[in-house]
Amino acid sequence: MDTKRQINKTAWWRNTKLIATVILLCVAFIFYTISNKFTSAGMQVNADHLMYSKVLQGPLTISVSGNGILVPENIQWLAARVSGRVEKVVIKAGTRVMEGDVIALLSNPELEQQAEETRWDYEAFLAQFEALKAELESSLLQQKAQVLHAQFAYESANLQLTAETQLIENKTGVVSEINFKKTQMNVSQLKRTWEIQQQLAEKFSLTMKAKVKAKNAELNKLSKVLQRAEERVAALNITAPMNGIVQESDLKPGQRIAIGGLVAKIADPKSLFAELQLSELNIGEVVLGQTAVIDTRNGMVSGEVIRIDPNVNNGNVQVDIRILETLPKSARPDLSITGKINVSELENTLYVQRPAFVRANVSSNLYRLDEEGYARKISVKLGQGSVSQIQILSGLQVGDEIVLSDTTTWQSHNTVLLN
User: Fold this and answer.
1) Distance between CA 370 and CA 231 in Å, rounded?
2) Half-sphere exposure of residue 69, counting CA atoms within 13 Å on the CB side?
3) What is the predicted pLDDT for the residue at 24?
4) What is the pLDDT, as a whole number, of residue 384?
5) Strands 84-89 and 102-107
6) Residue-level pLDDT at 27
7) What is the pLDDT of residue 12?
8) What's the gap between Cα 313 and its chain centre?
9) Angle (deg, nearest 10), helices 109-170 and 177-234
């Protein structure tokens, strides 16, 4: 006989309650786990907003850095040699010039008039000097002619005396004793006259030379005056004294310039060196001769420390760097640069990228990452520091990963959860 089975209408309700209970227990477990994790961490941070670095081992270059500018070693200030009014500005600041290029034109009618009058005086005196020389030379020729005339008269009389002497010695009676004596006296007189004429010619020649020398000195003096006047007029054209770039020039047409007034500043771009400003805290290890690297924003060039300023200004010390390589074409005076000076080389050491606000040669609290996603605070002894790297003396090992970002707000927590 078949028996009718009764269906339990409450079974599905019991299953639903069981499932709900399991889900509730799971949620409670997850909540407990997360809560426990947060409680142990004490703080949680978005990991995507942080920077990290692993500890490495090997050679480490220790360097210090600073900002600065390129400065020309060869600078020349151009001053006005004469006063005048600016008629035209030919070259303005920032222009490259060659030696002799006209920078500006000045005008000074008074200087031009003085130069013209001096030229007239010089030309008039030169004409007088030439006339005087011609006159003296003519007189000298006349004097020489008189000497020749006296010489001829003496030699003629001397020939006559020689002939009469032979006749007297032969006692021919052709020449009387009286005439012979007269001939002797005439020869002596003519000889003396010739000698006097020679002395007069020599004295006249010396006098002539003295007069010409005196007049020539006056002419040279006047020539110098004229040359100076012409140079002053030429100085109205202000020219570049060397090849370079005009750095400063505030000339304006119509402006009045006094003697010695500054006109322009010209710098030689080929003589540039770097002036770096280093913090007084980093200057202790910098010495002369150390190598450096200069970043011109358009290329890197090597350099060498050639001077360290003994003074501190606003917490900085100026260090001069000689450029050892060819600078980029864009390099010019006053160009902003950055530079690094290599102060030492460590052969084999532990190092890491330099965390924010960490100083060298101190012990500092850093946060090291673990496998569970925590950043745990540890004490690390730091050694020498570079611009972007720092030596690890103890507290970390090769392969450890630390947080580089600013952790000053974490210092009250030993453990931080990285989400």
Assistant:
1) 83
2) 7
3) 67
4) 87
5) antiparallel
6) 59
7) 45
8) 23
9) 170
- Which residue intervals of 57-176 are DSSP H helices? 109-170
In the numeric block, which tokens belong to residue 216? 């020539």
Whole-number pLDDT of residue 273: 93
pLDDT at position 21 is 65
Three-state secondary structure of 268-305: CHHHEEEEEEEECCCHHHCCCCCEEEEECCCCEEEEEE
Going by C-alpha positions, the residue among 13, 102, 58, 11 that lies closest to residue 391 is: 58
Question: b or e along 217-236 (b: 16 or more beta carbons within 10 Å of the residue's beta carbon)?
Answer: eebeebeebbeebeebbebb
| 89, containing H or E segment | strand 84-89
Burial tier of 342 (Cβ tally within 10 Å: 0-12, 13-18, 19+): middle
Q: pTM (2 decimals)?
A: 0.56
As beta bridge partners, residue 392 has 350, 382
Task: Identify the sign of the CA torsion 323, 326, 328, 332.
Answer: positive
pLDDT tens per residue across span 295-351: 998 889 999 999 999 999 999 999 999 999 998 888 888 899 999 999 888 889 999
| Spatial CA neighbour of 335 closest among 285, 280, 273, 384 | 273
Other residues' Cβ atoms within 10 Å of the Cβ of residue 249: 21
264 CB-contact burial (10 Å; exposed 0-12 / middle 13-18 / buried 19+): buried
Write the DSSP string, 185-214.
Answer: HHHHHHHHHHHHHHHHHHHHHHHHHHHHHH
CA distance 318 to 33: 58
* Per-residue model confidence (pLDDT) at position 131: 93
Query: What H or E segment, with its residue span, contains residue 94?
Result: none
Q: Residue with structure tokens 């974490």?
A: 410
Q: Alpha carbon 12 to chain centroid distance?
A: 96
**pLDDT for the residue 283:** 87
Say how far apart CA 382 and CA 358 lie, in whole Å: 9
Residues of the chain with pLDDT under 70: 1-22, 24-42
